[in-house]
Amino acid sequence: MTLEKTFILIKPDGVKRGLIGSIIQRYERAGLRLCAVKLVSCTREQAEEHYAEHRGKSFFSSLVALLTSGPSLAIAAEGAHAIAVVRKLNGDTEPQSAAPGTIRGDFAHMGYTRSAELKGTINNMVHASDSAESALRELSLWFDDSDYTDPYETVLKEFI
Ligand code: UDP
Ligand code: MG
């Protein structure tokens, strides 16, 4: 099955910088359908659950602190190969080495050295599911069935 739903989070650094519109535009422009969108101030428990795979790593507590520092925009997006396509649009984890044209490459610049100096997380504004299993787990962590809209007709239907 190549038609997939993936989970995207515009993290509080992206929201605080006023980049919601600029970032969402990238996903829509690529032809992805937004199925659910919600501004969420997440709890510590939800942040820790979301990033459970990173529990115990040096950056875990600053990552959880970032996620609970203000609202995030949660998005469910659908399209052919949506999981890989959104990871491509987001770019590499480290903005310093993320390619120009990607969200992390165009709207941020921090590298691991600087984030270590600041003893913080690397501010890269967006999260996206990295596999079908992660997408299912994360979508159910952030959304209820009632959050989803019915599929709409799209002029870009041939691309999804
Ligand atoms: N992160 C960090 N330092 C690191 C690795 C990751 O601060 O050395 C943060 C960063 O915000 C990243 C998140 O932890 O987006 C999750 O890391 P992951 O390796 O899953 O990267 P992603 O899937 O977001 O590209
Ligand atoms: Mg990840």
Task: Summarize the structure in words.
The chain has one domain: 2-Layer Sandwich (Alpha-Beta Plaits), CATH 3.30.70. It has a four-stranded antiparallel beta sheet with strand order 2-3-1-4, with helices on both faces. It is globular, with a radius of gyration of 15 Å. The model has no long low-confidence stretch (mean pLDDT 94). The chain has eight helices and four strands, in the order βααβααβαααβα. The protein is of the alpha+beta class and 160 residues long. The protein binds uridine-5'-diphosphate and magnesium ion (MG). The site of uridine-5'-diphosphate (UDP) has 11 residues, from helix 7.
Set down the secondary structure blueprint.
Layout: E1 3-10, H1 12-16, H2 20-29, E2 33-40, H3 44-50, H4 60-67, E3 72-80, H5 82-90, H6 103-107, H7 112-117, E4 126-128, H8 132-142
Antiparallel strand pairs: 1-3, 1-4, 2-3
The structure holds uridine-5'-diphosphate (UDP) and magnesium ion (MG).
The site of uridine-5'-diphosphate has 11 residues, from helix 7.
